[in-house]
Amino acid sequence: MKVILTHEVSGLGTAGDVVDVKPGYARNFLYRRGLAEQWTKGAQKQVEALAAGRAARAVKSLEEATSIKGNLESQTYTVSAHAGESGRLFGAVTSREVAAAVVAAGGPELDRRTIEIPTPIKNVGPSEALVRLHPEVQAKVALDVVAG
Fold it and tell me: How far is CA 140 from CA 38, 77, 147, in A?
């Protein structure tokens, strides 16, 4: 089934890409989260127009992404979470909490869907998360998880 991505999806593509996926994945994951829309001839024309505009902005956004990357990687962000006496969290740190911690520390506002946490953060202490700022630029964000 052909779909047009409206947002970047890890391992699948960036916004505006036309990809083939299984119908269940499109219906149950991509459509429900607003990450894709069904492919049609009219939508394909819109994608081509968006791609031309995106190509013009690509160089500017790449420079901007590298500067934001430098700002994000130069600082450690504190995330407060509920934890037990042993330092084990009740649940895990989410991408929404990471985005809120970056904004609280004076960093840029990040879309929570661009934040990837490679392994679930379930303990108090230092950790890392990846932020996809641009298809060519990823920033490693240092986190300090504290009991709160």
Answer: 33, 11, 22
Burial class (CB in 10 A: 0-12, 13-18, 19+), 97: buried
pTM over 0.70: no
Nearest partner of 146 among 127, 125, 128, judged by Cα: 125
- Encode 84-135 in three state secondary structure: CCCCEECCCCCHHHHHHHHHHCCCCCCCHHHEECCCCCCECEEEEEEEEEEC
d(CA 10, CA 13): 7
Q: What is the pLDDT of residues 41-60, one digit of tens each?
A: 888 887 777 777 766 666 56
Quick: pLDDT tens for 72-90. Answer: 999 999 999 999 999 999 9
